[in-house]
Every structure is written in structure tokens, then in C-alpha cells.
Structures
1.
Amino acid sequence: MFRSMKTRIFDLLDTVSDMVEEMRTLSDRRGAISDCLGAIEAISAQLEEEETAPGRTVDKLIHLQAMFKDLYAEGAFVNDKSVALLRKLVRDLQTTLRVEIKPKLNVVFFPYKASMWDSLESVYEAAANDPDCVAQVVPIPYYQLSQDGAVPAYEGELFPAHIPVTHFNEYSLEAEQPDIIFVHNIYDQYNTLTRVHEHFFTSNLKQYTDMLVYVPYHVSSFVPPTESDSRLAYDIPGIKNIDKVILVNEFLKQGALRQGVPKEKLLVLGSPKFDALVKAMNNEIDYPIEWVERIQGKRVYLINTPVLMFANNLFNRLETLINFLNIPTVDPNSIVIWRPHPLTQASIKQYSPFFMEYYVRLTSSIRNRDPLYRHIILDESADYIPALKAADVIISNVGSLLRSFLLTEKKVLFWGSSMPEGSLIPNNAFYYAFDEQEPWFDLIKKFSEGYDPLAENRKGMAKKAYVNTDGSSGAKVYQTIKERVLKK
């Protein structure tokens, strides 16, 4: 039995108890007794579904049912003695039920994009390994938005093979009434690139659970937000439906408080995304077959481009990207992995539709190993871990992939000329692509010769900005949420 069902049974018994106390003063006692019998029948039907029958609870329920039937047959004659006996029977039943039936937590995960599943996976693993929990993963449908309209999408088939997936058509919120719902998208109808199906808006989910938990699909910036910073987005309408928000550090909590999020909603427990990388760093992983020979013995440069890479200032950014894609002409013993954000095409359709034809042609040429791009690997997979592990250097701005890469303590060639002001990561931890004293093409040559004077500065970078970077975030998220639910 799930905890939510046990709670509903106790609610029914509380209603029966209230009716018993009012029985002598009611004008329609037969109707009240009939209602009590209906509640008992509903409880009995639920108990019959248990794998192991709770014998003592069933016996006491039968005894209570028999007394109500006797009263009904006797014309609903009720006196102090019968009320006292009914009161005792109800209390005994509640006590026995509380002790005999140990409920399980009913937990469901509603991811929408497979590439963002890593933000929930270690939380799911903790739930799946808990004998007191039944956990389900239900990838939900969504729409890709553009100026031409909304295109339905579903990625259930893209999730890792070891994750048992339930199709959303086979999952009923009404029937399940989950104790805990975990989501990584709370933007509802307010997103501009994608929109989850309206059945899975937070406003609807909240009707079926007392614990709706938001675990962001990204790792938040290591640059603390200012009071006027809009990056936090905790003022969106969906936040009011959320019971708990998982944060990666204390300064984000302060930012959320400034935006009016109640303190009791905020939990600083880190990002489960780090857990996936910690596991990969400590174990061998399988690279895509088509990568193995190409990266063997090479210096690997990972280029990470953000979701709005081609939304504005497009041609300057494209020129810089093309320069970086040509790194192997500067260092012949290198190869480039380009990983565009999973929503890059969606953002182009929305903001720069005229650019789509060129983008498709460029990516197709790389994907098909055009000789001009033979030293470039296009990584459009849902799993970014192989790229992070293979990379010797990442070229990126302040994006989620860079923040995860901090754990590796490998070289960072920052897509800029200096560290953003206020950063928790010291300025001397990164190299800078547009540093006039040491530009990117000079650095590429030096890296090929073993140059790395900042190696010591990168040690422990992730811990300077985030909590629980040791692989424990997901387990702590699950355990903390479980404890909060059980205390209710």
C-alpha cells in the first residue's frame, strides 16, 4: 500500500469517527450509518488488493462493519453505550492499521528531454534502491516551438536502456496520487523554445501530490546573481506550485529569497548532474564506436555552444565557431568534438529561421565526414558524459556543461577575454580565448607542447562554487525529501 492511500484510509476513518460522535443528534441516523458502511466497504476493497492480507486490521474492520449493520437493522437506535463501543472499535482499528500496514512511498519522475535526464537519474537510483519506495520514470511529451507553431515531441525511446520507462499513456495521476513527483521543467506555458504537454504543467501536477519537487536540469552559474539578475527565473508563476526547489549553493538560495520564494521551499543540496560525472570519472565508460579510433592518441578539444548561440550577433559568433573548428590546423595532433546545446535547432527556428538551412548543411557535412571536416566530431547524443571524459580541453562560456567540467579539473579555454565579475572561480583557473596577451591560437600551440601553468589552480574548483560535488547529491535529495514527506 502506498502512503497516500493509507492517508486516505485514515481520512475515511476520521470521517467515520466524526459521524459516530454526532450520531445521537442526527435526524437521519440511518443515512449516516449507510455512509459509514460505504466508507468501510471502500477500505475493505483497498485492503483486498494488498499482496499480504493485514489479518488483524481486516478482523477489526469486519467487527466494526458488523456493528454498523446491526444498528441499521435495529432501526438505527443509538445510545451512549453503542456510541462508546463504536468509538472504541474505530480507535482500535486505527491503531492496528497504523502498526500492521507499513506503506511504501509512491514516487514518480517526469523528465521531458533524455539529454536532461542526468539531473534526475541519481535521485531515481536512490529511490529505486529504497525497499520502502516504488519509483517510476515517465518521460512526458512536449512541443518544440517556433515561429511556425508547435511540433509534438516525445523522447521515451532515447532514455538509457537500464532505466525502466513507463509510457505516459499508461500512467494515471488520478489513480496513482503519487506521494512525491520530481520534475526538471517548471516553465509550463511560459517557455519560448519548448513547452511540456499541458497535462504535466505544475498547476495540474500539484492537484495530485503533496510533494512536488523541482530539480533544475542545468547546473547554475558560479557567478552569484545580483539583485536585478533575471537569470534565476524564480519569479515565474510555476514556482508557486512547487513544494521544494533543489539549489546548488547558498548564494542561489539568497537570490531566490530576494525574488520572494518562501524559505521553506528551498533546499541547498547540490546538483545530481555532478553525480553522473563523478561516476564516469571513477569508472571506465564506453565511447561511441565511431569515436574510438578518431580520438585515440589525440588531444581532444570539446567545443560547447549554448542554446542561444545563433539567436543574436549570429555572424560574429559563427566566425568564432569556425575558427575553433579549425583548431586541428594549428595542432595537427588534435581533434574537435562539437557539442551544440540540445535545443539549438529549436532556438534557430524561433529566432533566426533564415540560418536553419546553413546550420543543417554544416552539421550534415560534419556528421557525414566531409573531408573538409574530417577532424571534427559532432556530438548530438543525449549523453554528454563521453564528451566530457574524452576532452583534454573545453572551450565554453559560462554554461551548464562547463560547470560540470569543473569536476574534471582539466584545462578550460574560456570563451571570452576574462572571468565574469563576482565569479566564485578565481580568475587564474582558466585560460581565455580572447586574451590579447595570449590569444587562443597561441594557447593551442603551447598546449600541444605540454604547457599548463594553471594546473594547480584548477584543483578543487567545483567545491569553491557548489555543494555535494562528491557524487552524493542525488541520494541526499531523495533522503531529504523522503524525510519531509514522512514527517507530514
2.
Amino acid sequence: MNQPKDDGPALTQQELPGTFADLGPLGRESALEPGAVLWREGDAGDHVVLLLEGRLEVSHQTPEGEELVLRHLYPGAVAGEMAALDGQARSATVRARSPSRVLSIPAVRFREFLRERPDVLEQLFWLQLERVRSLTWRVSRTHHRAITDPLTGLYNYGFFRERLAMELERAQLTGDTLALTIFDIDHFKHYNDTHGHQEGNKVLQKVAEILKQTGRRGDVVARYGGEEFVALLYGAGPSDARRFAESFRGAVAVHGFPGESSQPSGRITVSGGVAVFPLDAQDDLALVKAADERLYQAKDGGRNRTVGGATPHL
């Protein structure tokens, strides 16, 4: 994370913002050196701090033991109020990231003050709501990066396998069908060797875009790895899945990629294998295996074709 260049203007107790100004007489000022810890995650919530000068860092330890920085606090910010109010343990660690001054208020005095000043309590509520919104946005971005292939923008292999297991379980409970298609770009290594990886990446991106456009809203399309792609079609039977696979194959074949005349067939094409639950397999591993076997049948049959559910495209 980039370090902010400016910690913001220092404040005196008399300059505390808005409704927090009246908290000044309740606390005691103290100075903090960079790295000093105000409290650690799990500590008792026995006081609240208002930051007068410097910058504080709020962090949380992940289940893997890594320190995750949640946010930075600047002069005028309040920290530790939730643990002081509900008596629970601290939910995060707070430390100084630069030379800082804080106003520390005992939790008991803080609670007594709030009984007399509900307007301050309301202000704290809105601050907490804003933090939750900000954290939700950051978690959403982090989650999106974790499940997305960075090159193509499609879902990645890990997310696909999770969704496959989940959707198959749902299909087993409801009696619905579930189709899986696996595609491979024909002679992609030849294209990469001829035009370079940068141009090859552009082909992968365009093929991914075509696949996403071909799918229905709600279909799970993902990069399976290398030049392979998958699509998970909930509720699709053999005819629907074959129609989807052929639509995608045909769209790639007629797209017109730069430099494709150097390909053995004179153009960029894909081959595909289709398998449908429960007709072709009863579990997720068997479904992937069935689709993969049909993909290789399409490859062995001359490429630029799909196999599964009926006579392959010729």
C-alpha cells in the first residue's frame, strides 16, 4: 500500500471537529513514536483515543497469520469507540505510523459522556457506517481480484471449480441438468511462437470476450488455464449446450484475428467438448473428465469442431 505523503494538519483539543470538541476535557494527551502500539487485537476496550497529530494504522491479523492493513486515521479521527461502548475485546490493532499525539479518554468517562450527549453517539454511528461501507468496498475489490483471471477478466480456475461443485450439488437436489463445455484454441503454441506472447495474449483476451458475449446471463465462464476456457451452463440440456458450443466456435472462426493466416488452417479456431449432468456423469470430477475427453475427440477429429451430445460439427 502506498504511504500517504501528508498526515494532515495537527489539531489542538480546542480544534477537535464538530461534536468531538467537548471530549477534550475528558482525556489526557500523550505522544507516540512511529511503531508504538496503542492496543492490539483482542485487548480490552478500556479507552478511546482521538488523534490530534500524525497518522495511525488500523490492522487485522488474517487466519493465515498475515497483518492486513484496514485503514489509516488522520487528525480529527476517533478510534476504539466500539469496544469501549460494548465492552468487547478490540477487533483490530492500532499503531502509530508517524510521530503522533493522541487524546486518551477512559471508557467509563466516555460512556458517561454519551449518556448526556446523544448527538455525539449519532455522529459515531455515522462514522462507523462509513467505515463499514469503505471496508465492504475494499473486501469486494479484493475478492474480485482473488476469483478473476487478470489477463482475460474471466473467472479463474479456482473459482470455476468451487462453482462447479456448488452448482452440481444444486442440480442433484433439484433434478436439473448442468452442462459443462471445455474449449481449447487450436494450434495456439504455433501462433505464440510466430507472433510472440504479446500478440498471443491479445488473442486470449478476444477469445475470452467472445465467450462471455456468447454465454447467457448467469452462466459461469472461466479461463481454465493456458489457452483453455470453460463454461458452466445451469439448466442446459444436450441441445442447449451444443448450440452454445457451436455458437462460440463459429464466432471465433469468423472473427478475423491479426496474423491468423500463418495458422495451419489459415485462421484462429477453437475445439470444444461438451458433457451434461446427469446424462454423461454423476459428479464434478467425472463431468470434467467427460468434457475433456470429448475435447480431445474434437482435436483428433481435425479441430475447429465440438463434440458432445450429438454428431460433431464437421
3.
Amino acid sequence: MGRIGLAISGGPDSLALLLLAKANLPDIVAATVDHGLRPEAADEARFVGKICADLGVDHSILTLADRPVGNPSSWARQARYHALDDWGTAKKISWLLTAHHADDQLETLLMRLNRGSGVAGLAGIRAQNKTVARPLLNWRKAELEALVAQAGLLAVDDPSNRDARYDRARMRAALSKADWLDPVAAARSASALASADAALDWTTQQLFDQRAEMGTDRITLAAGDLPYELQRRLLIACLQALNPAAAPRDDEVMRLLASLNTGQTATLAGIKCSGGAQWTFQPAPPPRTISRNS
């Protein structure tokens, strides 16, 4: 298994992860990210360090130097994982564990359902993603809080978790009044959708290998007889094969599919896409420039 890294914020969820990992794993190290967004954050990180020291767990504080650009919540998440990735490389960890739980999964599922997400989005928080694993997705938050209380630990309280400016905080507040919803059942549904998404990805790759004819800067594909979802995934695969940076929005993909299925030609992500019995993809020519004589 190798060395395991733990992302520990000091909240009840991550402290429970720390306790469970200490009791069950032979070689663990922990890190706390100080995003610099709250004046209390530095003291909280040192507080976690003391708990880790008492447990005999190596602990690092990762301080983010950059300030947020755009959405602070989105920036914090991306910057946190980048810092943890660098730390994990330095510590030679095999896996990074985070403390996402069933209540987090229910929040994510409902938020994405409200945004009209497809199979991939409704799969929610993945149990495993590259070298990040989330072993607590079938645990309720209340169970984790009870574990921490039983150990006599006082968890950090992050007020941003209740800040109504953020979608997740508003969803969390709404769910606190809906105790008839079962987060563990929602976690099972998300897991089933993750399996379905993986199966669709596998099928897409098989179809791409069987049907895509690769030329020099050109792909030809017979996809008109396939279900919409497989067409959608194959279309994205073709775009990214020619332009690895392509990240089209869902609405752009929908419009392009409509064009291809009616034999039309359109351009997306710098790729000229032509419909018909065979779909063809090739780099779009550069835009024409008009010169003026002085």
C-alpha cells in the first residue's frame, strides 16, 4: 500500500479520518492547508499539528501564497489540491485520503441535479480519482462527529460552511430540514452512476478504436447509428484527439451534434466538423485576414 497522506483541516470529518487512519494504517503522514482566507486559519493549522504530534503522526502546514482569483471557493479547492499534490510528491505518498462523507455526497448530487448534470456529473464525488481516495463516502457526518467526541477532541468550526453566499452552504441548510432524505442511499446511487459512467467511457473507447479512421490531422468516424450519449462522448474524444486542450461546454456539444446529425458543418475548439454518413474532423483553417494598402 505504501505511505498514505491525509488531508486534515481540523473539522470533525477530517479529524475522524485521522483517528481511523491512525488505528488502521501503518504509515501515515498528514497535511493541513492554510488558504490564508481567514485570520483564524493559521492557529487552526497549528492546532491540527498538535493533535497529530500527540498521536505520533508527521504533520505539515501548507501555506498558499497566492490570493484567490474569481470564485474563492473554487480557487481554494484547486489551490488546495495543487499544494497537496506537491506535498505528496515530496513525502513519497502512494495515496492521498480526504474525508468526504455521505452527507457531502448527497449535497453534491442534489446541486448537480439542480444544474441539469448528466451521468458523469450525477456520479458525484468519486471514491477514487487518480491517487486521491475518499474512504468515508458511506459514513454519515453524525457518525464521524460522534467518533471525534468520543476521543475527547474539539474540532475546528469553519464559519464559511454556513455562509449563504455559497451554493453548498445553502444546500446544507436546506437539507438540515429534510431528515427524510437518506445520504447513505444517495451515496449508493452516486456509486452506481459512477459505475455506469465508467462503462460508458469504456464503450466509447472501444467504439473509437473500432470506428475512427485516423489520418494526418484528420479523423473520420461513422457514428450516425449510435445512441446520443455515445455520439456525445465520441465527439468529445475526436475533438480532444486533434486538440488536447479542447473543453467544450455541454450546450456547444449539443449544437454541434445537431449539426452533424443533419449533415451540416460547424467549427468547435478550432476543429472543423462535417456531418453526413461519415463524420470528419480536421483543424479549421486560420481566419482570413484582410490587408489594406496604405
4.
Amino acid sequence: MQRYEVLAHTADTGILAHGASLAEAFENAAFGMFDLVFDLSGVTGAEECRVEVEAETLEELLVAWLSVLLAEAEIRGLALARFAVEGPAGGRLLGTGWGGPSAGLELRGPPVKAVTYHDLAVDQVPGGWQARVIFDV
């Protein structure tokens, strides 16, 4: 199964993340968000970023998860390349991202400025889950 697909969008960019489980779809959405910006092939998992978020819907949990990762990575100068999610269940998600310094990495695209609610969807599909998210770049 492909981790994610890039979605065509007029001014921004988006992904459709896939996973055999809901947690894996959330992990792949995070990977896709960073992979749009950086060549992650040489990133090691030395730095850890732990996230705990709560929300009423799966879609809101996805936005919260990705937004916190994006903010933490920007503040700490990290490119995150590996992710683990517990949940999401009961409106709560615990997750961790691992990566390394973003300085000096080859850029693949413009930086993600924000995670949007436009066309946002988290759906169970045959064989697993999909998470659609559009990023402001």
C-alpha cells in the first residue's frame, strides 16, 4: 500500500494518506506533510517530538496532530521522518515523531505554513483508512 498520494490543488498542496489502521493513516499523513518539503532519505531519528491532542472528531484530531508536529518541528528546526500513533480513540491521540535537524536538507517543495480544514476527510475504506488534508504553503 502506498503511504500517501499528492493531491492537485490550485494554490496549496494536499495529500491523501493511506493506512491499514487509523493510526497508520495518521502516521502516513505526518510523513507526507514533511516529505512534501524535505528529502527525508537521510534523516535519522535522533530527536523526539511527543504530541498529545484531544478533539471531538477524527478530522479535528488529524488537524491538531499535524499542526502540533508542524509547530514543534519549526520551533526546534527539525525534519521529522518517522512517526508512531497510539489511538486515535475517544477523542484523544498520543503520538511521537522522530527526526533530525532540517538545516542543510534538500528541499522538495515550499514549506508548509499551516494545516487547513479545506476538503478535510478521514474515512474508513475497504482495506483500511484514508486521511485527506490540504496544506497552506
